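Quick one: structure for this chain?
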Amino acid sequence: MKRRSAPPVHSSPWRPALRWLALLLVVGSVAVYYHYQRQINRHARRAWASFVSGHLTGREKTPLLDGYAVHGIDVSAYQGRIDWAEVSRNHVKFAFIKATEGVTLRDSKFQRNWKAARKAGVYRGAYHYFQPTYDGAKQANLFTRTVPLAPGDLPPVLDVEHAEFHDVAVMRRNVATWLRLVERHYGVRPILYSNYSFYQRYLAGHFDKYPLWLAHYEVDQPRLPREKWIIWQHSDEAYIPGIRGTVDFNVFQGSFQSLLDLRIPPKSAPSSKR
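Got it. Here's what it folds into:
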């Protein structure tokens, strides 16, 4: 039988182009990951934390940040029921507790957290989440009607980070109104909280007389000079025994005595006339 040769195989003209496209996708993916690796890793960690949240015990623990002696947290109803005694046993010296938001919202866990933190020996403060489209005076009124700050408590805090507003000048006026009215009510200068990018874009240079609590993640140190801030929120995905799930982790810049000095001072007794 005569042997027949196999028909010639014609390579597709698209194969070289597909190989180059695959190579470009790989190189592009590596370049994107290299540039945004902190953000990508952060989202991956948060996704994993959400996935395993149902199996958490409330005993998980994040190591304390080196180089700082005074550590603290900030909490809201999101953290659920907190074992404050256990939190206190794990080197948490201070806590800021969400009290209000906007012009009507009171945090459902504020009253319990407020009393339990003090009972556990954690130095406490309260914060208001600022809604930039609402009147600053009404927001200040909600906070002062909700929070019974007293001597020994930490100063009130205004959390300004919500970026949905139309006019930055109006937003700043409302922020200034809240800070002025709350300072007048309690007799102590409030602390201004914001994240690094929002602060740099909208607030820097306008509220410099107020102590700054800066949120800045995925960095070894805040990019603002140390003299610009007093508290650094270095993580929003930390674990502390006593809280089931993640919590914001903060450090105070200074000694424990400096934190105590920041508290609202005792009211001076009125002088008696003879």
